[in-house]
Write a sequence for this structure.
């Protein structure tokens, strides 16, 4: 049996070590690794190596239909998703949708702004009034899962580059 110390996350990297890790990943090559290295240079976040590896994996998996990031609580899945979002936006791929429980919409918006300097738009009932398609934005769109589920035709009308579903384990009857 492992001790609690062995199971804890490694200490955060300094800015110097983040840059060094980014350069090392670039030098190793590989599509996801090369792409994530560029996004890391501007991030204002204390990264751990496993977050960099997960983001590189996710970027590489996009061409194969995507992936699922499922880790222990508190290891930084939001950071990993933020790295992927930042990189896609840097590449000019602007159609990003983040679906989350309603209580986490503002938290996602604040995290993207503070850690990656990304402006995201929260879509709710107020934003939907009068708009042909409230999801048609040129910034990452954050919406609650129930709000989006009630408007599937609007979601299908747009060519999404990335869809992030936070707390996906809470989804019920997703097959319907």
């Amino acid at each position: 049996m492992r001790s609690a110390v062995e199971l804890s996350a490694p200490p955060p990297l300094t800015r110097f070590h983040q840059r060094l890790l980014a350069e090392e990943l670039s030098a190793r090559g590989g599509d996801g690794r090369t792409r994530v290295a560029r996004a890391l240079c501007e991030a204002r976040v204390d990264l751990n190596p496993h977050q960099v590896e997960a983001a590189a994996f996710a970027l590489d998996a996009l061409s194969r239909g995507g992936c699922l990031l499922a880790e222990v609580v508190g290891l930084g899945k939001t950071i990993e998703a933020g790295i992927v979002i930042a990189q896609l936006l840097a590449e000019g791929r602007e159609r990003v949708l983040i679906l989350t429980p309603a209580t986490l919409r503002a938290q996602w918006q604040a995290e993207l702004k503070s850690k990656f300097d990304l402006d995201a738009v929260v879509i709710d009932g107020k934003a939907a009034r009068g708009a042909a398609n409230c999801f048609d934005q040129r910034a990452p769109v954050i919406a609650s899962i129930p709000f989006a589920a009630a408007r599937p035709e609007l979601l299908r009308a747009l060519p999404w580059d990335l869809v992030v579903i936070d707390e996906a384990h809470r989804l019920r009857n997703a097959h319907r």
User: Anything to note?
Assistant: The first strand starts at residue 96 and ends at 100.
